[in-house]
Design a protein that fits this description.
It is built from three helices and no strands. By secondary structure, the chain is mainly α. Keywords: Membrane, Transmembrane, Transmembrane helix.
Length: 49
């Protein structure tokens, strides 16, 4: 059941790629970057301690 959703391409996702980044995608990108940077510094600080 889960595999069927992945195989079938949805027009909504394809259209979002061609359009410029909207507010939601921009916020999601910022959250992802902050999460990665936070995990990097957290692991780096934990190793030094």
């Amino acid at each position: 059941m889960e595999g069927e959703d992945v195989v079938v391409p949805q027009p909504e996702t394809e259209g979002a790629q061609s359009t410029p980044i909207n507010m939601y995608e921009g916020l999601l990108l910022v959250v992802a970057v902050m999460f990665i940077v936070g995990m990097y510094y957290y692991n780096k600080r934990r190793k030094l301690a």
